[in-house]
Structure formats: C-alpha cells, structure tokens
Fold each of these.
Amino acid sequence: MRTTFFSKKTESASLLLGDAVYTVLDTELTGLDMKKDSIVSIGAVRMKGTRIDIGNSFYRLIHPAGRMDHKNILIHGITPSEVEEEPVVDAVLDDLSAFCGNSVIVGHFVSLDINFINRELKRTGRAKLKNAAVDTCKIYEWIKSSEGAFSRHYSARQDELDLFSLAREYNITFNEGHNALGDAFITAQLFQRFLYALPGLGVNSIRDLLKTGKA
C-alpha cells in the first residue's frame, strides 16, 4: 500500500484515507487545568493507512513541573517516585515533534493533548504542532449519527464516549491498568475500525475525514 505523510498545506487534504500516515497520540496529565497542570507521559503509535505499525511507537515518562494529584495518580498509575529521575518535558519535545512529522494526528479527545503539548512547545520557543488532527470521539458520533433508520435521534451521554466504553463496543481487548502508549494503541485500533467503515459512508479522503471529526 502506498502511504504518504500528510502535508500541512491544504492541497494535501485530497489524500485518500488509505494513503495517509497517522500518529495516534495520548498523554497522561497531573490534571486538566492548562494553567497549573503538567504532562507526565506521552505515548504515540504510527499508522500507515489502516495498518498499525506496532514497531514504530513513541513513549516517554516525564518529570512534571507541578505537583501530582492523588486522584490522577489513581487514574494513570504513575507515581512521583517513577518520574523523579525522568527528564522534564523540554527534553522530549524535539523527539515528539520529529515523530509526529507531517502526519495526521489522531486521538480520543485529542484537543486536550495537543493543547498541553503546544503550550510546552510555545513556552520553550519551539514551533507548535500544526498538523491536521482528528478526534476519534467526534468520528464515532458522526458515524452513529449517519447510520441506520434512527440516526437522527442518536444522542450519547458523555460517560458513554470515553475510550474504554467505545473499545468495549468494538470488541477491542485491553487491560484495566493503562498508560499513554497503551491508550494510544487502543485508540489506533478504534480508528482502524472507523477507517474500514468510513468509505461506505462517503468519507474517502483526508478532507472528508476532517469534516467528520476535526479536533
């Protein structure tokens, strides 16, 4: 299969879904407050069309700038002692930007991840990520609203749209314990299912994909 990295220029939006390269991204955070919280890990996996390139992944633990909250430790399972000797985020940003390259960024509620990463890139004087980006949650909602006789009545509760609920719906197996790379791999499998379904709903190009689930 021919695969092509996504140019940040608008004209490359004509790429077919199966010809594009994707970076499926996830972060773990000390919290959700952009003003005070920090990244504690970043995970990403490459996809070439519908193929998940398991051997081409990115994972870094990060020493956070702020205090780690007990509630979030229970979610991501990363303790202060685990990241005490890890590099600060500044030291991993160049590697992350290089890994993303010009690919299409994919993630579940990925705007949050991108906003935190871009905050750090801006703070350190680096170029922000300007990649095309799509949200698997938005794509899921679009698919559900486009399918079936009762599609116009579709409405999901927010607690039904988390990554693990959708993974169960699509029979994707996962461990209850998770990290950023594991979550990125689950998201990649979810996105893979969407890539197989979308052409049947008239979504064939990156331009079409951005209309259904732009982050």
Note: The mean pLDDT is 87.
Amino acid sequence: MWEVARRLRAASWVDLTHRFAPGQPSFPGDPDETVETVSTVDDGAWVQRFGLIGQWGTHVDAPAHFAAGGRTLAELPVRDTVLPLVVLPLADVAQRDVDLEVTAAHITAFETEHGRIPEGSFVALATGWSRRWDEPGDAMHNPDAAGVFHSPGWGVSALEVLAARGVVAVGHETCDCDPGVRVSAGDLRAQRWWLEHDGWMIESMRGLAAVPPTGAMIVATWPVPEVASGFPARAAAVF
C-alpha cells in the first residue's frame, strides 16, 4: 500500500470543504455556531469549546437524520470513506434555471456521454452554487421578494436511478438536497427518500468545478460520536 500512498501524494487534490464559522449559511432556523476560548497558550495550551449542530457547514448526513432506526454515523463503514467519485457537471444548466430539479433524464444524459455510473460510487451534483457561499445576504437560498427560495437540487427520480446503480452516497453544493422552492414549502422529499433508502450524503460542498466528471475518487472523513445523525465533514477529491 505504500506505493499507492506514493501515487496519491503525486496526484491532484481538491478540497471540497468549506471552513465553518459563526454567521455562515445554514438551514433556515438552525442555531448559529458559538466559539468559546477555554484557555490560551499563556495558560499552557490554546483550547476552544465549539457549540454547533451536527448539520453544520460541509457536513455528512447519515440515514438516521430522517429515517427512524436508520444507520448513524458510527454505523457507516470506514471503507465507505473512500469511494469512486462521479461529478454531474450541471453548473451551466443551474445558471440558466436556478430552480433546476435533477431528474432521471439528467442521469441518462450523463451516462450517454460518460458511461454507466459505477456501483459503490459517490455522485456529486456540481451546480456552481458554492460560489455564493461568501456573498452577502442569503445568496445560498436565493429568496425572492415573497421569501421563496430559488436554488437547484435533486429530484427523487434521479435518486431512484442512482440507488438502482448501487450508489453509496450523494453530495451537492447547496445547503439543501431538494430544490429551494420545495424547501421553502417544507417539502424535503428527495432528501427523505435518499436517507430512508439507507444512503448518506454530504451537503454544502465546494470545489466540484475543478474535478473531472469521471475518474476521480473522494476521501471523506468526520468525527464519530457514539450516536449521531450528522457532523461537519472534511472531503477531498483525488485524481
């Protein structure tokens, strides 16, 4: 395996993770992060206490987030933290249609050009939305004058195809799995479907524009509380 490690160090790496901090974009109504200094170097060591929800920043959602009795983070096998990575390049489409819902037709079109999505892979939706992360206001949710969100997301029909392919996990740049219009109405049908069918996901990803549609792999890690439905994650693409 040392030869594999040598090759990986020589490969291209792209960080897919936002740094998290108080005041960052988040799901509507979620409490903000708090940070407290417990001690400083002058006291002997710099120690901080963080107060945040599990679904904060770039984070992993386990099935238990929506599915009663579903797998928790501790029950996701460690071998699934390294997977083949497929990137659906739909940024141009999302720029034209901010309400884009990714459907089975989008998966079919991708496979026509790039080949069948492999079993045991991670499929990430690249919409270019992460460019909005540091913009002022609520650019990630992109609300209109009536407060209705306008952002792209997954449709159930696309996730059904991915599940049939044996895909392990999905990811996206938006704060939410579903298109914003549905999120505004409290309709999280796509996220619920995926988690209830034992998949897991990473939300609020970045850097996907720099990753090829096929041929890369994802390395995704997170802390493992005894019982948890989600936690901030560190993810990277390697190719």
Note: The chain has one domain: 2-238.
Amino acid sequence: MIINQGELFRGMTMVFMKEFMDFTARESYKKGDFVFHEGDPAEYFYTLLSGSVKLNIGETGQRVYMVSKPGDAFGWSSVAGRDIYSASAECTEPTTLLKIGRDKLSRLLEKYPDCGVLFYKKLSEILGKRLIGCYQIISQSS
C-alpha cells in the first residue's frame, strides 16, 4: 500500500488503515493545478500517491516545502486546529492524491486512540523537521 510508504502512517494498524482508506477520495490534478490556496477553509487532509506538490506562502509564492514522496501528507492545517490553510498547494506535475475530510479523520483518530496518539506524535516530528528546513532556507537567503 503506497500510503504506508509515508512516515506518518508507519506503524498504524491494518484495521485503522482500512477504515482510513474507506473514508478517502482519490483525486487527479494536472501540472499547475492548485489543490488549495493559502487562506482557503482547511477542510481536507491529503496524502500523495504520485506526482509532486509545491507548498508556497505569500503573494510571491515562495516555496516552503515540496511534497514528492508517495505517502507524504500535507494540508496539516486541517488537523492542527486551524480553520484555514497556511500555504497554497500547487501541483508541479500530473499528481494523484487521496483526501480525507477533517471531521472524518478526527472521528477515526478518536475511534482508534492508539493510532491517534501515534499520528499526532509523528505529525509533530514531521512538522518539526519541516520547520528546521524552513529556518535553513531563511538563513541561506539572508
């Protein structure tokens, strides 16, 4: 299962992953398509199946992160207590994603608390790494 290649879902139970997959929708995008824009309502959480997505912020579209490995996830605002996306997500090539609604994911994480704890633990680790990467980009540009 491609989704298990991502850091976030390693160690999740098969029962959890089956229900997760049952709640997802598969979507395809063309190069240049936006999955969402900075400031849009944060309604969905996404997992990359194929392709790549550039996450950028601000009107100039400064790249802050590239989602390019199958199983990588983005749209964290939807699960991190934010009502809007903090970045825009633009496909840099033909891309296929899985999306799950924030409420469905929240209910699923509550139903399987062990997986919920693991999910948020891994989420904090991944976001910490991305933050360090952003700091490095900022320090290189100054």
Note: The chain has a mean pLDDT of 89.
Amino acid sequence: MFFISRFESIDGIPNEEQIEEWTESFFHSLLNILNSFFSHVSVEEAVSRMELVPFAELVQDELRGESEEIVAIAVSKVNELAEIELAFMRSYL
C-alpha cells in the first residue's frame, strides 16, 4: 500500500512549522470537544480530568503511518500545548 504524508518535506527534512500548525489545530479541536464536557464540572474537576487526557497517544494514533520524526515533533508540541492549557486552568484554582 502506498502512503502519502500529510506534511511536506524539504530535502527529506519534515516541515516543522506545518507539523506544529497541524498539531495546534488538532489540539484546539480536541479542546472544543472537551470544553463542552468540562463546562459542567468545577474547575478543580476539569483540571483533574484534563490531566488524564492522553494527548500524545491521540496524536500518535492520528499520525499513524507518518515518520517517527514527524510524530515526535507533533507529540512534543501537543504536550507543550497541554501543559500551557493546564497551567491556565490551574490559575483559576
């Protein structure tokens, strides 16, 4: 089976900016879904539930078939975004 990457590579090097943009879009789509559930619980409960969301695994599943380098960039970015969001949520505690 032939696989076509959703990301561009320049001289065999993945376009990191494109991967990060995709990851941000993916993360914010997930947050939109999660926020509809979190709006019905306390901030403390929302933070504890958000900490349990396996963002890295979700990204890995979504990028199945992509190179390890692409997946690593995306996982790093989604972990960074999740930590930023959690820090923001914790500021309300």
Note: The chain is about 65% helix and 5% strand.
